[in-house]
């Protein structure tokens, strides 16, 4: 361990393709620390999602290593990867991915059920998270009854309710209009400041970029630029 | 516990398809319980009637008597042993004498089984006392089936032709004194009952019998050449028949269950396919594959629970009503050769219901687990995107 929250060294990712394979990530080396608010940007197909998936232990590197919170993703068992995600990682998806039959409260409660928290603790944490995202009054609604912006706020609440070390968000604003995008970005940067949660985005949305503290540009599977930005 | 809660929520939120599946499955519950209950009710009734009308508390056969071999009847008779005289006099057992004969209904010749019984007997419910008469002519009685199939009425005269113990033919005219109605075909089809003393005279077999019917719980001393036949033995044929009926029922249940299982299997496959994104999301949130498989299995198995509730809602009133009112049996059921009442009152035991629930739950769980194993092969990254597989 070298003190970084995430250490990626000489990472390659190949996908089988026809007879050979396609290399989506080429020799990536990056570190991430606590409290970052970082965007991975780049054109479509540059490997943003692939990198995020590996950090999120949903996929594993082909070569090189990715160490997340002291755990080497390449050698994690499926069970250990699930445990890592359950305890320390939060996910936000472009398409929200709320569980349709659960109401807002239950969706946000889900990660806490997996952590076997008591009902009292769960309720407190869920209400707290929903207040952060400004949905304290919609606990009983079903995802179907919510707007896209509201759905994504529920998803944010679900990602942060267990106070994870890292939140990974793949194109969180891609399906939202400008006003909603700004709203959720403000919410996330507040959470980042107050909880010291590390946020890593994959995005090609300019609206996101102005909120970032750090911007990593991928091109063709390689890190083209890694720069600190003004942030908000 | 978590999986159970989630499964309930998922099921509660699921649509018409779930309810349809549960309904089909609930039919399986109801039909299985109903059909088994009906057979059980039939079985009990048939046993009860057989005991009351035909076999009493058991029988004692003369050793040469084989009910399945009419040729044996010729020699299957012997004087009733003396050590039973008292029991016979006290009405604790009653002798029956058998012979094959011919009679001439509507000018045709037809063979018939003549059974002689004491008109004063009270061992069987058989209304033998209807053959007590002051008339010269020999009174006989027949069952309703026999009467119907030969177009005979009360008061009709028929001619019977028999051979006595020496093989000499003789004939006499008799009068139908009574037509009795009983559920038991074994005392009815192709048989004519007459007073035993008269038959003994005809056959020149004074004091003889083919078998004796015992009153309930009578255990007479044994006698040389006579063998005791208990209920087990005497009802074996009927038990076999009922068992065959339940095999027929089993085929019906299997088909119904198969249909329900197919529907659930299909729903499971469809739901796992459609809910890939949900599965991927659950994995991203930290559920293990085993947990997700468990979740889907429980969710599928909950169909069984839901179906049980549904079955209870309409099945309990329906089936209890029938247990009280009885089920009218269609005519022509007599051909089964087992006692069939006009109405059968089904009997539902706790064991039957519990067994059915276990059977249905077990099959539902297996059929839900089967497609769920597919989840184990999903890559979470593909699942999240809902990528087709
Ligand atoms: N499972 C896979 N099998 C084969 N190729 C894949 C797979 N996943 C990604 N790729 C390829 O890897 C490359 C990078 O994909 P990735 O999804 O990471 O891009 P991205 O930067 O997220 O693009 P976008 O902005 O469109 O989301 C693409 O060319 C894609 O076709
Ligand atoms: Mg992407």
Structure characterization notes:
The complex is a heterodimer of chains A (232) and B (389). With 232 residues, chain A is of the alpha/beta class. Chain A is 34% helix and 28% strand. Chain A starts with 5 loop residues before the first strand and ends with a strand. With 389 residues, chain B is of the alpha+beta class. Chain B has 2 domains: 2-52 and 237-384, no CATH class; 59-229, no CATH class. Chain B is 49% helix and 18% strand. In chain B, a hairpin with a 6-residue loop joins strand 3 (93-103) and strand 4 (110-117). Chain B starts with a helix and ends with a helix. Chains A and B meet through helix 2 and helix 3 of A and helix 1, helix 8 and helix 11 of B. Bound molecules: adenosine-5'-triphosphate and magnesium ion. The site of adenosine-5'-triphosphate has 13 residues of chain A, from strand 2 and helix 1. Residues 48-49, 170, 202 of chain A line the site of magnesium ion (MG).
Q: Characterize the largest beta sheet of chain B: strand count, sense, and whether it forms a barrel.
A: 9 strands, mixed
What structural category arises from helix and sheet content of chain A?
A: alpha/beta
Q: Report on the biggest sheet of chain A.
A: 6 strands, mixed
Bound ligand species: adenosine-5'-triphosphate, magnesium ion
Give the domain tally of chain B. 2
Q: Indicate the mean pLDDT of chain B.
A: 88
Number of strands of chain B: 13
Helix content of chain B: 40-55%
Our estimate of the beta-strand percent of chain B is: 15-25%
Number of helices of chain B: 11
Oligomer: heterodimer
Name the helix and strand elements of chain A from N-terminus to C-terminus, one letter apiece: EEEHEEHEHHHEHEHEE
Summarize the structure in short.
The complex is a heterodimer of chains A (232) and B (389). Chain A is α/β, with parallel strands linked by helices. Chain A has helices at 48-55, 78-88, 104-114, 119-132, 148-160, 178-195, 206-209; strands at residues 6-17, 20-32, 37-41, 63-68, 71-72, 89-92, 166-170, 198-202, 214-219, 222-228.
